[in-house]
Design a protein that fits this description.
By secondary structure, this protein is mostly beta strands. The chain has one helix at residues 70-76; strands at 11-12, 17-21, 26-31, 37-42, 52-56, 59-66, 86-91. The protein has a 4-stranded antiparallel sheet, with no helix packed on it. A 3-stranded antiparallel sheet has the order 5-6-7, with no helix packed on it. A hairpin with a 4-residue loop joins β1 and β2.
Length: 95
């Protein structure tokens, strides 16, 4: 799955999840204990900024920016990933 390394940074949650993004456009959630991929979503462009988390009305959300930019993404993925430009927000489901 990881054709290119992540340059998005990593977000750790209190629930044992790690979120990051890949230069190829996937947002992924990993299990903090074993590093296994639990979930992924294809954004359509590079993810090269760290995800953020916040709570609204008692529900936790994770947001990430998608849009190829910066020297690493432009140099590594070149035209293989569209430029894009969007914000993706995901609600975390309670256990």
């Amino acid at each position: 799955m990881m054709e290119f390394a992540s340059s998005a940074g990593m977000l750790a949650t209190d629930g044992g999840l790690l979120f990051t993004g890949l230069l190829t456009g996937e947002v992924i959630a990993l299990d903090q204990d074993d590093g296994k991929t639990l979930w992924q979503f294809k954004t359509g462009s590079s993810v090269n900024a760290p995800p953020i988390t916040y709570t609204h009305k008692g529900r936790q959300f994770v947001s990430v920016l998608s849009g190829r930019g910066g020297s690493i993404a432009n140099r590594v993925v070149t035209d293989s990933v569209p430029t894009g430009g969007s914000v993706w927000t995901f609600a975390l489901m309670p256990e």
